[in-house]
User: Fold this.
Amino acid sequence: MNEDQTSQNRLLVEEVEETEQVNGTTILDHQPPSPGLRPWQWWMLVSLNIAFLLIGACGAVILSRFYYVRGGTSKWMGALLQTAAFPVIYIPFFFFPSPKKLPAAIDRPSIPRLSLIYFLLGSLLASNSLLYSIGLRFIPVSTYSLICGTQLAFNAIFSFFINSQKFTPWIINSLVLLTLSASLVAVNSDSVEHEGVTKGEYALGFICTLTASAGYSLLLCLMQLSFEKVLKKETFSVILDMQINTSLVATFISIGGLFASGEWRGLKDEMESFKEGRVAYVMTLVGASLANQVAFIGALGLIFVVSSLFSNVIGTLSYPVIPVAAVLIYHETMNGAKVVAMLLGIWGTASYLFQHYLDGNEVVRLREMSSNDESAP
Assistant:
């Protein structure tokens, strides 16, 4: 998972929590880990998870781009980096164990039906990972990150048709701003000359990244639909099962693509010709894979220690942080168009999150009204 797979994980938990709020309960109500912590311990845990999320998100994109800049060419290897380290996701089980008391058990779907869902979602995840890999190969990190910000706009659109989410003025404002942000990046001619990339390759990278952002948003909405209609429950373990199994499918598909395309034959030469050496080649691949999963662990940690909204707010900080990191590490140019696009993206993201903040307040208000009605004689 790169930055956008990080964005996938954040939005997945957000959509799951929204579904539970409709039913009158949230994951946080089931298993809050923070009450037993002292204030300084709580702040330490929050700070640690913030570091995991931001460093993981930035590291995944920076290292994946480093792979291509220093001599890597395999698009399937780039896709594999986004899911291959999924076993690391089991780590949160040690820190946030499943709660002892859960809502009444609901009939689990049949194994064939569940397997089909995991396979279809995992296939979509693999396709998106491949598209993101192509995007990172041909466009600068700063441009890539700004385009990825449009994922929230696509998420709102697909949620409207699939999950019956309503369009509010704040959501519409977010759609307009994120669309303008992507449009500015599309016409930014400075990026075309970056690292000797041709106009055709830049256009391909832009289209693939934009398509992958739309695909990930579709994936999130389909995951939410699966929680609502098939799994019919949303707990910590169920969320992790979904992530682990879809990542497993995507990993096998990426491995299959690596061999079917014949790209595996060039990996040895690729490692030998890597500009920083063979050790750096291996460390880059391992580091990028782990960074994707570290970001997800950080996002989950913030969900359970603080709230889903806070996790999303921190996660959106990666959008302006990654372009800045790209300027410092790769000396990319941040011209006026990119700066304006970044500001529009931040504004659009803030509008999207503010709407969810309003929705959360409305849920709290309805709960209080319901509690008062029940307690009334």
Remarks:
- DSSP finds 16 helices and no strands in the chain.
- Residues 15-34 have pLDDT under 50 and may be disordered.
- The radius of gyration is 21 Å.
- The CA atoms of residues 194 and 348 lie 27 Å apart.
